[in-house]
Amino acid sequence: MGDPFTVRIAVRGYELDTQGHLNQAVYLQYAEHARWECLRAAGISQDRLIATGVGPVALEVTLRYLRELRGGDEVDVSCEFHWGEGRTFRIEQDYRRLDGTQVATVTGVGGLLDLSTRRLVADPRKRFRELATEPGPLRL
Q1: Which of 15, 41, 52, 91 could form a disulfide with 137 if both were Cys (CB 3.0 to 4.6 A apart)?
Q2: 3 assigned to active site
């Protein structure tokens, strides 16, 4: 299916902790940014999701730190959707320095919430496919 969707992020000084490396919570923000950019690349904006009465939700997230990131470093954060049957899907994300060194991984389980019923959509893959103008980044 090709390479996963990837976004490049530069580590900013205000994101560092007292040890001088990227604060642990910011790794999750980078993952979230990559997921939203992946949806945007597929033609799905936040406004469009809200207008159609749905929104993505994170149900489980596991973050594994492998190397530190420091101020001024650049990192490529990937986003790869894995679709199955049922109400949930998996997302795998990889953080790599520009030289290819793996820095961290995020794995998660997500769903698509119906904003009126507050329940997960029965077939999120189908709904995302209906919303996407460019389904490639979502592997649909």
Answers
A1: 41
A2: no
